[in-house]
Write a structure and sequence with these properties.
Layout (H helix, E strand, L loop, with lengths): L2 E5 L4 E5 L6 E10 L2 E8 L1 E4 L7 E8 L2 E8 L6 E3 L8 E5 L1 H10 L4 E5 L2 E5 L2 E2 L4 E5 L3 E5 L8 E2 L2 E3 L6 E3 L10 E2 L3 E4 L2 E6 L3 E3 L23 E4 L2 E6 L2 E3 L6 E4 L2 E6 L2 E3 L16 E6 L2 E4 L4 E3 L4 H6 L4 E7 L2 E4 L2 E5 L7 E12 L3 E6 L9 E13 L3 E6 L11 H4 L12 E2 L1 E12 L2 E6 L6 E13 L22 E19 L7 E15 L1
């Protein structure tokens, strides 16, 4: 038995090092200095109530095995209680200025403490080298009135007209948007710790009504990090977001640990976690249940890639529970800067429309390379379409034009995206519906390689399967019960793959250049 720790000033997060998916079969007893403080079966959990700059012995015991580690919490220069600055926490009084005053007054390595209570706020702006601590029972409750939200200009030209300054983003373009409830711009070394709640309160406003229309400015996220480094969030609940929930943008070296992200199943455009043009991001031990993609990895549309290029790289998602929503882990479709080096491991995908979802289209550009993407040790329960790869995704105002949707070869140019290697291994899927794998590459730029290894896929009974389009493109008719459907692929490898209950008993292949099938079984 082994574990690793992520250490904060007043808490730690523990990850058990095992092969289990999201949680262990048996509960563990967790002790601090010999005293049991928690019983859990989760692979990732947080311990709170610790003191800064203090040494503790953490021990974990289960099934006769145990592990122990000595840790030392981070130093804290000062603790500012927002109530000492005038915040009421009564859910009615506007506490924004009081909490903002505490943030702006906080010295390096200080903590702004939000005790139990409901704090009605409009957007709060963080600064570098601080901790925002939302204690148990503390809730930041966002205003439901969009007129209370500052506006962030999308792109501003520098005074000497030599450069551009980008403050906000809307679906991959630098467009003017409302500030998020928690906003950080060009910040370094910030921790946001729980176990409190950040409540976007969109369920009590008009954010989800006519959600595709711009009213004053584009809808805000709930948490937005722009041009930040060394940012961490731990053990916080984030819910009821007006739009994408947590949106890191042009950031590096980020950790999101043991979060709980919750939006209603019918809330539009409320992705859970959207790293965009970011490097070195870890999402660990997080549960996400939302109205759109649980996780959507992005890198902007063509303008940003051409003028402010930053590829999304080194994204690790591990020990997470992703449920409902359109996709469990999605790459795209705002992906013009490309995405490389994604690892998704030991995750549970539960009742989403799609599991592994890759989507792009003509117009994303030649820098839009999606490569080195790996899924390992995944359990999917009642995911209708476990694997979909789509290079004809019909998003944006021109999404249904002939340029995007024509399935005949076009000239390869600066607008042509690429999909490189996608590897999926050690996966079990139950409750499959319309298709297990549906992959549609561009005829002029086929998907380079799809590798499936050690996979079991069980379909729903035939009378419960529904007709659906696994890939959202115009020229694809709904299907059901299809095991493998692949078009415009350079190389498709399947090793030790068992598909049970599909209506097709062999892969449906169109313009697939080479295949390697070993141990592929249909039952």
């Amino acid at each position: 038995m082994q574990f690793t720790t992520s250490i904060f000033n007043r808490s730690i997060t523990v990850e058990m090092m095992n092969q289990e998916i999201y949680e262990m079969k048996q509960p563990m007893k967790v002790s601090v200095d010999g005293k049991c403080v928690l019983t859990t079966n989760k692979n990732v959990f947080s311990l709170t109530g610790l003191q800064p700059d203090h040494t503790y012995v953490i021990s974990v015991e289960a099934d006769g095995e145990s592990a122990e580690e000595q840790i030392h919490t981070l130093r804290e220069s000062v603790l500012f209680n927002v109530q000492d600055f005038g915040a009421k926490g009564d859910g009615v009084s506007n506490d924004t200025s009081f909490i903002q005053a505490a943030i702006l007054s906080c010295p390096k390595n200080g903590t702004v403490y939000v005790p139990k209570g409901i704090y009605f706020v409009t957007p709060l702006f963080l600064k570098s080298d601080m901790t925002l601590w939302l204690d148990e029972g503390a809730e930041l409750l966002g205003s439901a009135d969009r007129r209370d939200y500052p506006i962030l200009p999308g792109m501003t030209t520098s005074t000497d007209e030599a450069s551009e300054y980008n403050l906000s983003s809307w679906e991959g373009n630098p467009l003017t948007s409302f500030a998020s409830l928690i906003t950080a711009v060009s910040c370094d070394h910030v921790d946001i710790i729980g176990p409190g709640t950040i409540n976007g309160n969109a369920d009590h406003g008009d954010w989800w009504i006519d959600h595709r229309s711009k009213r004053i400015a584009w809808r805000p996220n709930t948490v937005f990090f722009n041009d930040c480094r060394h940012m961490r969030m731990q053990n916080v609940t984030v819910k009821n977001s007006p739009c994408w929930t947590i949106h890191p943008y042009y950031c590096e070296d980020l950790c999101f640990l043991n979060l709980n992200i919750q939006n209603p199943y019918d809330s539009p455009n409320t992705d859970g976690f959207d790293p965009e043009s970011c490097r070195n991001v870890l999402l660990l031990g997080t549960k996400i249940s939302v109205g759109d993609d649980c996780i959507a990895i992005k890198s902007g549309k063509y303008y940003m890639a051409a003028n402010h290029f930053k590829r999304t790289e080194n994204i690790v998602i591990r020990n997470c529970d992703l449920e409902r929503g359109h996709g469990s882990v999605t790459v795209g479709s705002e992906i013009s800067g490309g995405v490389t080096g994604v690892k998704v491991e030991q995750c549970l995908f539960d009742s989403t429309d799609r599991g592994v979802r890759v989507k792009t289209r003509r117009g994303r550009g030649q820098r839009s390379l999606l490569d080195d993407i790996t899924f390992d040790r995944i359990v999917m329960k009642n995911v209708h379409m476990p694997i979909t790869l789509n290079m004809f995704y019909f998003c944006d105002p021109d999404g249904h034009t002939d340029f995007v949707q024509n399935t005949s070869p076009m000239t390869v140019n600066e607008m042509t995206p690429r999909i490189g290697s996608i590897r999926i291994k050690n996966m079990v899927c139950t409750g499959v519906d319309s298709a297990f794998l549906c992959a549609y590459g561009l005829p002029e730029m086929p998907i380079e390689k799809i590798s499936l290894e050690n996979i079991e896929a069980d379909f729903l009974p035939e009378d419960k399967q529904r007709l659906d389009r696994p890939v959202m493109m115009d020229r694809f008719e709904p299907i059901k019960g299809v095991g493998v459907w692949a078009c415009n692929i350079k190389k498709l490898d399947m090793e030790n793959v068992t598909i049970t209950g599909s209506s097709t008993k062999e892969p449906i292949l169109k313009n697939v250049e080479t295949t390697l099938f070993e141990g592929v079984n249909y039952k």
